[in-house]
């Protein structure tokens, strides 16, 4: 890496950062960077260290720099006055496509997934020869797996709930006991130590065994379904760490939920089931071999994700819609039905456990129960004036949601700096947050006032001394309750239930609600990035309900809407403002609160929240995706993509590497060793076998052969002494489609003898003869639509000319080539058009 | 048409039917038809009449013959022994693609829609030059239109409800009055006459003014969103007839609902708003010009359809999901949000009206109210034994649903025979059904027993004499009620409410329920096909609730589930068995019955119902689509489509008609007159303008030009004296993109002078330079995926060879070419593969 300090006068920036191509080592990309920005470039992005000139601070730039920040820099740069004297023209015409992303605080090489149907001779023969019984087997296994995913997700979700409720419950009972005896310091010590230890367990597991288990996992699942295979995301270790870590972190009273992790857990279960167990101990059951492809795994993981949401919120329809709206990139109605089946199973499992626990056999579980913030007792009647508090909540949700996204983004960057420094730092950060949380939760309630119990309040006894309940006595005299303790010294689920409680309009003091809201704003921002499994749903619900109820309190003279209801609306609005979902959130809230009459106002709040939020920044999941450098393809192409053709993109890339239909072994080995491409076009020139009726000089695009299949050829040594086309039975004798479905192996591990190097391979039967193609005159916008809609990994570019001797394929597009940021760095003039458009 | 009788010994069939090509008049297609089948071929399918040989019965075959019946015939036929001595080889290699379908009992030419983005110079210039203000205008109009669609749909739905409740209400009050006075015959006469007149109004309007308004309209909307433009479906006349006809038909007590028609009404409103009014009186408002394209209209109609469902069931989320699951072919999350907005508006409108009507200002409306079958009062607790009645109901729903589909299919074919005979026959059929319905509804209750009122029944007074209510006195003494009258002598909405009523386990006698169920089975089958606006939802709900409640009655000793609940489940199961929806039905039922605890069992019932139904036949909407001959493209390609390439399809079609980039006017006129194609590939050969660096003999595919744009050129007489490429400003001076967006005009209406015939046209600026292409080696299965996923009208086939002088495009695929039935008739060997696969 070359880093050069230039004077501020020259470029209004302090540093130039050079990025080298991952493959060729050639310098590709130069970015001027203001000194202040260095703070926000996480050092773990340092991909290449190199001697520096004039200045010795360590700077780097990677795919991480998000487009939002890169664009103004692009405009600032003047290509004519480049102080590094590098071939700028070359640079500006080259597409960089570094397939790197951050996975669990490590920079990893990301593989794309291939959702296209590979129609080579072997696979085709397999389909044709599949008997009715095998087809039925396949269908039966598909549904069995969907059922198992639901079943296991449901069981694990119940066990997690059970563990959390019991651990947190006994912890809180003990603390309440100390407080009752007025041993406040002892209570504090016990509370803090317990939380500290629980966090320690969760964080150590995450840090040492499965860094990918930290965080919610939803962005990575979203990326997987978009076609990006993040390594180690769906392994057995990740699953186990996620389960135990989630129990520890939630029981430790941290400001995070088990909802996001449950989605990840569901997906892990689905992935493991589909491939027959963890990587090293796979069950090679014949029935499962049909699922050894990216398409079926994608479907299973979609089922898993919706089961997870369903298990988290007991919202079966909401789970399906969440998967549909937020997570999935491709969707078809058959999948709708199968995910629905999975979530139905989850609900049945949850209901069964609830019935069992009602009998009191689950310890403290059952008192709090599965979360279900029931506000169905409220009778809703609207008046025209109610629109004012509802609109205010919606607007606030939008503003605060986008502000939350913005701040969280900044904090995550700073956290990345800290996490990068080593495992110890990660651990200390988590424990620090845990300590801070415990101190606040225990000490702040002393600021709350003691309020006498009001006999008109419905439901639970007042004051309550137990673990859960709406009117905590805490440090108050008999017959009084401390409203702040009710909110803070409880599990998160209980806190939500308490703040959602209806018909209790005088329960909370404004000051308590303000303290509660501010505390959870701070906690929500600092907790998410630490190295434990953490969901975003619950922190946002807590924050949102805080200001929702506060507005209810303030608007009391003008509106009859119940405060509990407004707390629900506040939570919904903040979720809409931050996560930007509509229909799925609406249904989740519907199923969560069990009150259908809330529907119209929930819808209005969600619409306002999302609209306002969209004016400022993208959704929180998109921000995290971006921050992790995952090459996610958006649904809508940018408008400037209509002004560039795929032919121009192909020109900016190195020439396409093609193979001949009958290829020498040495050439295959050479190509595999020297490139990292995953697909190679197979071209027949008439020098080999001139097709009947073709003029001399004709070339033919036979199709696309995958790297994995070439490796199989080399591994099995299917070499021919003479240069000839093989018969179909020859290849079928050597390969089965099951072997071709495997994606393992590396070229470095294979040894090819010297005498074999001169032999030939007939690539025809292994070539996918029906790759999707676009003409070179196709605009990038339309190519992107095709790429995403059909779920491709490679898109071949064919010439629009018919001419003798011309190559039948002039380029190959992959996911990275179609990313707006990469295109803009190769074609800066497009950015200017974009800028102009914006200015107009 | 040539029809020949052959002996049964020869072919095991009586008749041969020949189909002629619609364009060339050439005989394309021969089908042997057993005599019995003649009965089931509706005579309105007679496309060509011709002298017959040996036999004089009128036989015809059209696109109507569905694949299910055609396949066995294909197998029976022996191509070697063709008695007609026609060139069978030619036939079996030719793709027939007759674009004909039944629209409102008339056979019409169907146009496809074009959802692809046309990237020609003019449109591209327009996008580039659109100012920020114009973009905001567009976005603002989009949301305003979505809002207006919701608003108008909500208002019209309320007005329809109001009219129906009042008309039917006063009618029933009068009848009840006569019965109270024991003037039974007078009551009968009044009841029958009123129903007769109401049906007469509805039917006359449908028959004379808007035949497309008959039926539910949902299949046509589904087809529209798939890319098929059924003529006269979304006009102003259709809308008005649909509204009035729906009021008449429902108020007449016919066994049909207003739900399907409301979906159609919503879509009509959306379409009319989008194009600025009815065809002849369009408002040419500049803001609306952006919506003059198929893509935006598609989005609007999706909004309209979901608003319609929302208005019908007061189910906003259900409406969105219905559009997503059942109606829409393409979907994106931006649309999810906009439809959600529309349905939110509908709900607000409905709620406002309900508030107004609660004050008693809506006549009889408000007593019955908007349909809302509230069963929220039931406290649901499940036991393991409850699974038995639930499973039985699910199974029955699947069986009966598919049986209903099967029988309805047959009856609709017979009805088509009758309707074809003329307007009078259509009218008489409708009136006959109305008479039969009235007689049954009035006379059958006399079979019901009088039961003494049970004071433990909740809610309404017993017996009730008013229009609505649960315990109709009818002919019974005081203190008694007639349970059959409660079900039959009420509006359909009331009947559903009464049979769904909870905590009334002894209200209905088994015999009454059996009579109710059987009557509505018969009515449900005979009513749907008559010439009035009719929905399928309500008849199916009525049937389903009948057997659901009956099973509840029978299972009473074994299960504690409420009978009203089982009636709801019965309705859900039959809908799943017939319509095959899952998630959307589940949410609609949730919102309809207002009981979230029902969710798990509803899900199970729906899953069982759909699974069982899918074993027998496709969903009712698919059957109707097929019956109407609408060329709907299914989401999943057939497995045998992997065995045929698009190159083979192209060979079976006439050679593709291409134009040159600089083309003579005479050639354009000739091509437009002699073909019906809508798109022509534009090919540049180097004889014209050799591109730099291209060898002699090179040809270039420039793109695809649309018929509409060629017509515009001829209309505007944009001819060049010399053969030269034009500059961009020249074409922009002559054409605006607004003109190009118009799709009107016919070649016959244009006059081109003789001296103009020798001039030239530069087609380059008008050509869409980025059409989607596939290589000839692409399998039809994958081409179909591309065609449907991207929403194409034309798909160009390019050769896989690069050779001098070869044509750069070898074929063009349209919707008709990709339909399984058409491919199978051209390639019968595929059907054999398919048959073999089935047999295996």
Automatic annotation (TrEMBL), chains A, B:
Sequence ranges of Acidic residues compositional bias: 68-78
Main localization, broad class: membrane
Xref: Pfam families: CBS, Voltage_CLC
Intracellular or extracellular location(s): Membrane
Keyword Kinase appears in the UniProt entry: no
GO CC annotation terms, alphabetical: chloride channel complex; plant-type vacuole membrane
GO molecular function, one term: nitrate:proton symporter activity
Record-linked SUPFAM superfamilies: CBS-domain pair, Clc chloride channel
Membrane-spanning residues: 143-164, 185-213, 233-254, 300-324, 330-350, 387-407, 513-543, 596-613
Record region (Disordered): 66-87
Domain CBS: 767-832
Keyword field: CBS domain, Chloride, Chloride channel, Ion channel, Ion transport, Membrane, Repeat, Transmembrane, Transmembrane helix, Transport, Voltage-gated channel
Annotated membrane topology: Multi-pass membrane protein
Family the UniProt entry places it in: Belongs to the chloride channel (TC 2.A.49) family.
Protein name: Chloride channel protein
Gene source species: Cucurbita moschata (Winter crookneck squash)
């Amino acid at each position: 890496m070359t880093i050069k300090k230039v004077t501020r006068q020259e470029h209004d920036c302090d540093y130039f950062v050079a990025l080298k191509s991952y493959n060729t080592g050639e310098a590709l990309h130069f970015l001027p960077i203001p000194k202040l920005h260095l703070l926000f470039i996480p050092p773990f992005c340092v991909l290449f260290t190199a001697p520096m000139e004039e200045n010795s601070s360590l700077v780097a730039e990677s795919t991480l720099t998000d487009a939002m920040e890169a664009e103004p820099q692009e405009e600032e740069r003047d290509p004519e006055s480049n102080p590094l004297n590098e071939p700028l023209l070359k640079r500006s015409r080259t597409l960089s496509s570094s397939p790197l992303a951050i996975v669990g605080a490590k920079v990893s090489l990301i593989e794309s997934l291939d959702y296209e149907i590979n129609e080579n001779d072997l696979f085709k023969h397999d389909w044709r020869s599949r008997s009715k019984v095998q087809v039925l087997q396949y269908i039966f296994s598909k549904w069995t797996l969907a059922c198992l995913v639901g079943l296991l997700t449901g069981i694990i979700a119940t066990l997690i709930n059970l563990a959390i409720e019991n651990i947190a419950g006994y912890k809180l009972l003990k603390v309440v006991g100390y407080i009752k005896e007025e041993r406040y310091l002892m209570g504090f010590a016990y509370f803090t130590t317990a939380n500290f230890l629980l966090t320690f367990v969760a964080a150590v597991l995450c840090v040492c065994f499965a860094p990918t288990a930290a965080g919610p996992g939803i962005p990575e699942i979203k990326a997987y379904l978009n076609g990006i295979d993040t390594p180690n995301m769906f392994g057995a270790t990740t699953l186990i760490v996620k389960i135990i870590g989630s129990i520890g972190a939630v029981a430790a009273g941290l400001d995070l939920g088990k909802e996001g992790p449950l989605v990840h857990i569901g997906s892990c279960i689905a992935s493991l089931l589909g491939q027959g167990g963890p990587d090293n101990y796979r069950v090679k059951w014949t029935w499962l071999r049909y699922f050894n492809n990216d398409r079926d795994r994608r479907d299973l993981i979609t089922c898993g994700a919706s089961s997870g949401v369903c298990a988290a919120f007991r919202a079966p329809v909401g789970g399906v819609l969440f998967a549909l709206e937020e997570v999935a990139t491709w969707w078809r109605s058959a999948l709708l039905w199968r995910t629905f089946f999975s979530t139905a199973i989850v609900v049945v499992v949850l209901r069964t456990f609830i019935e069992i626990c009602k009998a009191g056999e689950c310890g403290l579980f059952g008192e709090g129960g599965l979360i279900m913030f029931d506000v169905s007792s409220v009778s809703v009647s609207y008046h025209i004036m109610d629109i004012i508090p509802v609109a205010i909540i919606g607007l606030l949700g939008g503003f605060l949601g986008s502000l939350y996204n913005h701040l969280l983004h900044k904090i995550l960057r700073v956290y990345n700096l800290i996490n990068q420094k080593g495992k110890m730092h990660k651990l200390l950060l988590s424990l620090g947050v845990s300590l801070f949380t415990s101190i606040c939760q225990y000490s702040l309630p002393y600021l709350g006032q003691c309020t006498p119990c009001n006999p008109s309040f419905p439901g639970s006894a007042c004051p309550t001394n137990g673990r859960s309940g709406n009117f905590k006595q805490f440090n108050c005299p008999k017959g009084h309750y401390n409203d702040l303790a009710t909110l803070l010294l409880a599990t998160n689920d209980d806190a939500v239930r308490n703040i959602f409680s209806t018909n209790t309009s005088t329960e909370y003091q404004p000051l308590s609600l303000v303290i509660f809201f501010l505390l959870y704003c701070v906690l929500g921002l600092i907790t998410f990035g630490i190295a434990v499994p953490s969901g975003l749903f619950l922190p946002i619900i807590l924050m949102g309900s805080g200001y929702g109820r506060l507005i209810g309190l303030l608007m009391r003279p003008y509106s009859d809407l119940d405060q509990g209801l407004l707390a629900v609306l506040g939570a919904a609005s903040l979720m809409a403002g931050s996560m930007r979902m509509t229909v799925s959130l609406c249904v989740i809230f519907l199923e969560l609160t069990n009150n259908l009459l809330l529907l119209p106002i929930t819808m209005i709040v969600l619409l306002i929240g999302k609209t306002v939020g969209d004016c400022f920044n993208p959704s929180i999941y998109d921000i995290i995706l971006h921050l992790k450098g995952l090459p996610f393809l958006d649904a809508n192409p940018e408008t400037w993509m209509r002004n560039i053709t795929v032919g121009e993109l192909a020109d900016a890339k190195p020439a396409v590497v093609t193979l001949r239909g009958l290829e020498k072994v040495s050439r295959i080995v050479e190509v595999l060793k020297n490139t990292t491409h995953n697909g190679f076009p197979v071209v027949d020139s008439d020098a080999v076998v001139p097709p009947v009726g073709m003029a001399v000089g004709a070339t033919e695009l036979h199709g696309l052969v995958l790297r994995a299949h070439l490796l199989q050829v080399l591994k099995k040594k299917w070499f021919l002494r003479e240069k000839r086309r093989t018969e179909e039975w020859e290849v079928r004798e050597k390969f089965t489609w099951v072997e071709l479905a495997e994606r393992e192996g590396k070229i470095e591990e294979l040894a090819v003898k010297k005498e074999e190097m001169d032999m030939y391979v007939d690539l025809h039967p292994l070539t996918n003869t029906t790759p999707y193609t676009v003409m070179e005159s196709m605009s990038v916008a339309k190519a992107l639509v095709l790429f995403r809609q059909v779920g491709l990994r490679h898109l071949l570019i064919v010439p629009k000319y018919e001419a003798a001797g011309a190559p039948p394929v002039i380029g190959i597009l992959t996911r990275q080539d179609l990313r707006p940021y990469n295109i803009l760095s190769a074609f800066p003039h497009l950015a200017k058009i974009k800028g102009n458009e914006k200015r107009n």
